Amino acid sequence: MLVKWEGIVIRSVDYGESSKVMTLFTRENGKLGVMARGAKKTKSRIAAVSQLFSHSYYLCKAGPGTGMPDLSQGDMLDSFRDMRQSLTATAYAAYIAELLDRLTQEREPNPYLFQLLLHTFRYLDEGRDAEILCRIFETKMLIVAGISPQLTACVNCGEQREPYAISVGQGGLLCPVCQPSDPYAMAVTPSTWKLLRLFQVFDLERLGDIEVKPATRNQLKHVLRSFMDEYLDLRLKSRAFLEQLERMERMTQSDHD
Fold this sequence. Notes:
Order of helices and strands: EEEEEHHHHEEEHHH
Helix content: 25-40%
Strand order of the largest sheet: 3-2-1-4-5
Largest sheet: 5 strands, antiparallel
Radius of gyration: 20 Å
Number of strands: 8
């Protein structure tokens, strides 16, 4: 049986001398594996559509069982060429793709997540702020994982009293009265928690220009990564590389300053 899916390649692993096993995130069926036979051959018709991050229509042969479908042909929609040519954008894209892969199950349709990934890659391809796009994506994935911080009022007493701190252990904002209940609560600026709250409900399609100060960027990253490290057992190779790249960029920036 032939099936057609719109998908984005979020993982690609060599298989034998000439083939690849691709992981697609599809609009119709969520995440699924596809065998791309002969994709590594230079003259293969499916070489381009089997590249990591490719957004294409995929025509696959699917058997009656649960075996892996075979890719028959593909129709490229977007290769995100400019994104690939930027080391920074590619590093963020790899991290985003791996995070999505690790936090989703096979064949669970989620058109919202497909659109989120597609818009994130399009913005990266346009040269938009990769770091902020990553923070938005992480915020959305915390919701998917069921560990999203509570950012509308104090998670302990329910009151709306500033200045807030953020407690990873208690799962959200703590007002000044309740902050002693968690000695490890993170002091954050109003800009940080308000941006995080915005990212939770924000429709990425409506993204405009977001100016974020370096100190706020650091706090956003620290809060989000703290929640992931506390509640998710993830050791992402792409995150290690991205953090190494970020350190190198900070060193370069300080040299210029």
